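Hey L., structure's done. Input below.
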Amino acid sequence: MRVSQKILVGFVLFALLWMLLDEQMFAQTTTTSQPPRAIQTVTRPNILILYADDLGYGDLGIQNSESRIPTPNLDQLARSGRRFTDGHSSSGVCTPSRYAMLTGRYHWRDFHGIVDVFGKSVFQSERLTLPMMLQQQGYHTACIGKWHLGWDWEAIKNPQSPPLRRTDGKATNFGPAAFDWSRPIPGGPLERGFDYYFGDDVINFPPYAWIENDKFVAAPDAEFDTSQWKKIKEGNWECRPGPMCSDWDPYQVLPTLARKGVEFIQAQSGKDQPFCLYFALPSPHAPIIPNDEWDGKSQAGAYGDFVCQTDAVCGQLLQALEDSGQSENTIVIFTADNGSEHYAYQRDAKFGHWSSNPFRGAKRDLYEGGHHVPFVIRWPGLTPAASVSNALVSQIDLFATLAEFLQVTLPANAAEDSHNLLPVLTGESAPVRTHHVHNTGPDRYALRSGDWILINAKNGYQNPINIAWEERHQYPADDDQPTELYDWIHDVEQRHNVAAKHPDKVVELQTLLTTIRSQQHTAPRLAK
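Output:
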């Protein structure tokens, strides 16, 4: 080979080597510039939202060393993902919390209470929802379980039947002949972004019948009659009167929903299309009706047994993910709509189990027990296993978090109060949310801001004060202040109202609350 040829070959080899090294350096630079622990191998993971009903923060064994209720499946879920110790729902009752999570918007900007029997939808027609956004990104979306966000019942009511509401606003008591049960019901989950729905709407509300998509599986043919049912195991039925299927068995609601959830997950295996399943449990909400095989599984009475069954149902769905090979490609979110019902006080006295432990208050209350809920996220490739975060987070934040991951630019009139939690999911960034507003009833608000909690009312109870519980737990008597202020860092039990000692802080937080309420948004992306 001539010298000139050798020089040419050498030059070509050198150029090829330089290009290879340059590509490697570029790849390293690109990887480094991306978000920490970003999931680059999974473009659109599946999403499973397990949403419990009236489950207290202290009902999970992993969060309460004094719990009398074993929750092995949810405890294991927490160990395999990231558990948030400061997670919140928007409200202390069912409907508003669900609305806030599905819209990324504080419920109190639109309403306060629950959808009553045969109540209309709480959604505005133009409101973008989380499932709608996921649909637009190619997801197959499903809701199985409790809806409780309203339907257009007027559309299927027979013309000769009385109005849906009386002059005092209460629901009229209807019999089975009041509706045309063969017609599709508008205004439900299918119009809010879900491709599929199966459930009974609300376990203690009529009609007592199964709905699949927008039609009844079987028409209600009887009047509500609890004497036809097996005896309740704790508390009262708390079921409103109305039409029901004559063979309706409330004890079969949870097992039926569990079977439907498992079947849905199994059916998605092998499909190219990702799915989002919002599995809204009807438990452990009253009526407290664990199946017989769960009797005595806890040391906290029938409610504790119902929590055990709830935990097992979650375990069934998680196992279905494993068995179908979808677990490593599925984000799992577990949380609850609000704290435990008022039966929690009796349970504490009788069994020594406080569902809100370590917090004060229960369902409906402004105190932490009303809205400080279990909050676990397992996101393969993102959340470190067995990790715990003390960052302030809200269910409202799920919308912006998933939108950010999917690189969706949200319009200004959507998810107005939702914060992107991706930085805190990894534990490699400071908290992104600095305050949270809680509300259950009109003109009664609680504001968490940094290390402070303001109860902008005489006290934080929406329920009647349970004096026996306060005395048993050595709470001081009410100091008759018009507002309450608590130092969250040193007083998570909300024992000591320090409003009188820090009047300037009270004014500061009241001003902030007024600003938030009038601003119509708190999402960082909307900040001017």
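The longest strand covers residues 46-52. Confidence is low (pLDDT under 50) at residues 1-42.

-- N.
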